[in-house]
Amino acid sequence: MNIFYSPTGIVDSRHPAQGLTDMSHAGLKHIALDLAMYCSGHDLKNYGKPMQPCRPVPHGNTPQCGDCRPEASKEAPDNDTAAKKTANPNPYSDASDRVSSICTPDAMLKNLQPLLEQCRSQGLSVQFLRVPRLPWDSKRGDLNPLLEEIAHSAIRLCGKIGCRYLAVSPLFAGIQKGTEWQVNRAYYLRLAKAARKYRVTLLLENQCRSHNGHLLRGICSDGAEAAAWIDMLNAETARQGNLLHAEIPAQDHSSHAEAPAQDHSSHAEAPAQGHSSHAEAPAQDHSSCAEALAQDHSQPRSDSPVFAFCLDTGTSTLCGQDMQEFAVSLGRRLKGVILRDCGRGQECSLLPFTAAYQRQPRTDWLGLIRGLRAVDFDDNLILDFADTAAAFSPLLRPQLLPLARSAADYFKWQIELESLLKKYDSIVLFGAGNMCRNYMKCYGEQYPPLFTCDNNPSIWGRTISGLEIKPPEALKDLPGSCGIFICNIYYREIEKQLLEMGIKNIEFFNDEYMPSFHFDRIETY
Predict the structure, then answer these.
(1) Where is the composition biased (Polar residues) (predicted)?
(2) Domains of the chain, earliest start first
(3) What are the φ/ψ torsions at residue 208 (nearest 5 degrees)?
(4) Are 290 and 105 in contact (CB under 8 A)?
């Protein structure tokens, strides 16, 4: 299982050296880069609108991402409050500056170069890339061609830097209800040609939609629907690939790799009928910088499906989704999980377990881990804690990063718990309380322990859930291929005790995310 870390909130996009150094020192070696660092949803929403800097900009400099806000409307001179809010605080700035200049593929790739160079110099790898997304309440369907152009450039960038995964959210703005499948089918099939060439897996994401300010379930927010989309897209991509190999001699068509796929098929299995007047039009790519990044010697992808899915836990939390059911519905189609805590009323990216109420997490981590275990998930975890990191002082941020790494490692360990049990020829438990009983209920039949042991002499010789309780000294007679699993919340004390006894193969067991639970508890001895 791979773990990737988002640098958003940690790394300054203009001066990335310090943040990337902090990540490297904390052991966060694998980067999941969100291009929204260079063109945010706010920037996209205001694309093409006159902008004014909201903080001072040195004379002669171009405002960068986050510097700008919409210019005051000249059609409402009576609105003094609005005029004051949008007044230009910098007398040297040019009121005609537009956010458009930072959201073109050329500009993003140019601004991205310092970060990529720092990653190379510090031995960090970028294996996961994410395309910018519009805010959920955006109605700007006119930006769909721009989003497609950005996605094409991102695919070529992935090919250049060796990035395997690119998350591309479905188009939703300005699309008539009932035509989402037709519009996005054509969109993704156009991207598929380039993805095959550069050997990139395109990951769809679950979405919200805004209705009168309330966030509801959006496109691909149902696991069965998402699975159907993935299957149909992969089937169509494979069919087009077979036709291409059958009809066209093998030669380099890299200059035409981005040509839009023609859609002449009428799929009976399509979930909705309808046509879009604008989103099916091919996006024109005028990105000379992005084209320069392309590698002409890349080969079409044929070894694995082009499309898979990335589950965003923050979006699922906002929509109140059952993540266990979602993961089970996707099965092996699930290739990425974005781990972020999120309050139920507002979208944000918090470090897991930090959004809590009355000592309980607001995110359904139980459902997520159960679902990922059920499908034997062994692919990519992406930790996104941008808001938590940004809220910390730069002086404290280096101390936060090791905790973030530990949180990600904890998820990996929980998901792979059954794989850990399979690792040993035999196992023994340490602890004869509720956790031991939970183990026996969930795993006792499939992975039966030889016995359990406990530090309480009064219960030696008894049984719990049919398991004999022995003194700790019995562990010294075990073979080297036996694993000792601590089933007690005093993990570190017991681990120290076992190490002093010379015991090896010490593992932890945890019953917080079991397939089922006992609803009664035995008294502590």
Answers:
(1) 87-99
(2) 2-49+98-415 (3.20.20.150), 420-508 (3.40.50.720)
(3) -100, 170
(4) yes
Residues 289, 291: Cα–Cα separation, whole Å: 5
- Say what the pTM is: 0.78
Q: CA-to-CA distance for 297 and 401, rounded, in angstroms?
A: 39
Give per-residue pLDDT as tens, 336-353.
999 999 876 788 999 999
Question: Within 13 A of 169's CA, how many CA atoms are on the CB side?
Answer: 26
- Copy the structure tokens of residue 286: 């005028």
Angle at the Cα of 70 from the Cα atoms of 211 and 153, rounded to 5 degrees: 80
Instruction: Evaluate if residue 520 carries a pLDDT over 80.
Output: no
pLDDT at 73 exceeding the cut of 70: no
| 3-state helix, strand and coil shares in percent for the chain, rounded to the nearest 5 | 40, 15, 45
Instruction: Please choose, from the candidates 482, 478, 448, 477, the residue with its C-alpha nearest in 3D space to the C-alpha of residue 465.
Output: 448
DSSP state of 15: S
Question: Is the pLDDT at 186 greater than 90, yes or no?
Answer: yes
Integer Cα distance of 507 and 491 in angstroms: 9
CB atoms within 10 A of CB 507: 17
Tens of pLDDT along 92-151? 233 334 455 677 888 888 899 999 999 999 999 999 999 998 888 788 888 889 999 999
Residue in 44, 233, 49 with CA at minimum distance from that of residue 134 = 44
